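Shall we go through a protein fold together, starting from nothing but its sequence? Label the sequence line and the structure token line clearly, so we can match residues to local backbone shapes. Would you write everything just below, so we can both look at the same thing?
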Amino acid sequence: MTKHIKIIEYALSSLLRRKYKSFAIIVAFSFTVAALASVLFLTTALKIEASHVFASAPDLIVQRTTAGRHELIPVDYAETIRNIPGVGAVHCRYWGYYYDALTEANYTVLGVKGDQDTLTLLDGRLPRTSGECAVGAGTAWLRHAESDRELILVNSQATGVVFDVVGVFRSESSLLSNDLVVLTDDGIKDFLGFPPDRATDIVVEVHNSNEVQTVAAKIKRFFPDARPITKSELIRTYDMVFNWRSGMMLTVFSAAVMAFCILAWDKATGISAEEKQEIGILKAIGWDTSDVLALKFWEGLIIAMTSFFVGILTGFAHVFFFDAAILASVIKGWSVLFPRFHLVPQINAYQVFVMGFLTVTPYVASTVIPAWKAAITDPDTVMRG
């Protein structure tokens, strides 16, 4: 143990003698790891946020389409769906998007009748009359619309409407509640101009999860213009979207990965004359080949682990403290128009391990292999070059 501690001390002093070269390698290595870590951390955090949303999603959502586009659905569809065997609660939903020119943000406007199990009030209550609303934490922050204040929005008739803010809420997922403006069903119908016999969609509860596809097929048979969407289809779609976007970003950063590979290859193809002379001197004064390899192993490991941890911490800070300012517009897509929200820190230990194995191991190997070639050569030959 004492021997290895002395070797580590010598390795540190050796790296400090070549401080500019060591610093340059750490910067390049750290940038590569930080870029990869940022993409993986952001994608994982968004997937977990989405999973919180889908945990409370209905078994089946029924939409109506015309020419492949989402249309408002007749409310009398609900009665027919309710009579299908195996179907539980069925109710119409009223919701839509609202672009706020004042803050240049998109809000999701949702109508409610009763309590929402997925939403937890931070302050106040849910709206009970058409002139009341509850808002998400992000909307409250953006519009300074805390409880007991007013929120002015422009309705479908281009008329300003004043709502009394009676509650500020949150949920387990920031994606679910952050941008919401909650009105009563009657209030949202008036605000967005819904026809009296139309709704945005219909949500369906199915008693047996194994019969969801069967119920969806029956709905499609009864209403050819309907588009039943199951919870599993939603989850699969979001996974595909996030995986595609993260894959695209990893492709963009492939240039950084290639630069790192070139750096590792350059290390593997040979060492500098100064390093060869140092190895020759160490061999001449009595160091064994195993000691030289241990020295180079610790040098490579110190550089690699320092760079890896700096890169991981940089990527973590970029995603969870600076809201992934560089990557958010690509990974989130149009959701950057949402009021600002903070992702809950999420780290996949398996991803970190794999990333470390694929970056640290090659670099350490590329440090030890050329040193081994020099260490098994006669010291006099090595020092003479």
About this structure: The chain has two domains: 2-53+240-384, 59-229. The radius of gyration is 30 Å.
